[in-house]
Amino acid sequence: MRLVESYLNEVGRYLPGSDDNDILRELRASLEEQVYDAAGDATPGPQHEKTVLNRLGHPMKVASGYRGQRYLIGPELFPIFIQTLKTVLVVVAVIQLALMLTGYVASGWTTSVKGLASGLFGTLLWATVVVLVVFAVTEYSGERLNWYDGWTADSLRPTRGASVKGSNLVTNLVSEGVFLLWWNDVLPFHDWIPGAIKTFDVALGSVWEPLFWPLNLLFGAWFVLHAWVLIRGLWQPATLYTELALGALGIAAGGWLLLHGPLLSVSGDVGADGELIAHRVMLTIIGGALVITAWDMLVAWRRLRRAAS
Amino acid sequence: MEREALDKLRLEMRRGSIVLAVLAQLRDEHYAYSLRKSLLERDISIDEGTLYPLVRRLEKQGLLTSEWREEEKRNKRFYRLSDHGRTVFEQLRKDWEELNHSVRTLVQEK
Lengths: 309, 110
Hints:
The structure holds 2 protein chains of 2 kinds. Chain A has 3 domains: 1-68, no CATH class; 77-143, no CATH class; 162-308, no CATH class. The model of chain A has no long low-confidence stretch (mean pLDDT 82). Chain A is built from 10 helices and 4 strands. By secondary structure, chain A is mostly helical. Chain B has a single domain (2-108), classed as Orthogonal Bundle (Arc Repressor Mutant, subunit A), CATH 1.10.10. Chain B has 4 helices and 3 strands. In chain B, strand 2 (64-71) and strand 3 (74-81) form a beta hairpin. In chain B, helix 1 crosses helix 4 (83-108). The longest helix of chain B has 26 residues, at 83-108. The radius of gyration of chain B is 16 Å and the shape is globular.
């Protein structure tokens, strides 16, 4: 029942989060039975699935029923509010970044990284406020959004895959983006240590040098993959295999670094145990990154098995 | 516009009695789809988008118990009234009968 699965993926995108799997399991059981009922003595097919899904209506509307009472924006409007907010924030961020890059090409960096980040944050905050006000006014005007009613199952594509949780992918995108900025010296974190306590300097060891382009390519590929999945709203077998392959490369790179250290080069008045502490902190960071990567691979593997079944 | 206003009033009137109808049906065990069908047979139509979240909310409030079980080679989640749910249902039934009597008297006056 490929259409039912596509429909459940869509519903899953808008569920509140805590009992998603349980809700989808129950919905799946009910939908499958309805499809068999609709088919009668015939073999259930896409047409029977469409009949059932058209009766049920827009996936967002079904998901909204599982949301509790919200005081500013009610459960019926909340999923489309979130969807609109995400779209507006992505569009605004892209425009803002494009403007920043244009400025850079035209006259070089005239603002500090902190200033650029602050400008971007301010714009995103304003965009959030505008969307919030529009939806709050819509909610309190009692206006119904009738576009739900025009939905039909013809818009579903019979795909195998698993719905995504946007918040997880946004975390990935932010961490990958920050890494790329730091790795390419756009975000020099060591400049943030106040001069008064800066009696020593810490730099990456020479072991990192051969990995400049491999890590740029790896994190760039991760960033593009996660952005693509976020936009599609669906993990599909091809993207899951790519996630597994990139994860394996990431673990290989981390393992290579750990085996070929030293990871850091410390100079200046660092104190008795300072160098040892710095190395341990770096080991912990790399170890943590490897554990998170392995966990992401395990989740991708489980999704792949679920999609195959 | 009048039609829309009437629909809203009907919806509000029905909303209050849906919980009682669901609790009444769940004195016997049902899974979500069979519950919807049994209500439909008694001319109470509730779409799945309303009924399924409602049943889950009632379970979270401790009025229902549920278990996953296989029936006809398919896994289904069966719901029924809990002990607390039976007590609440009996109280709501009495309240509804009193209210029904009062409203019936009111609308038949004159």
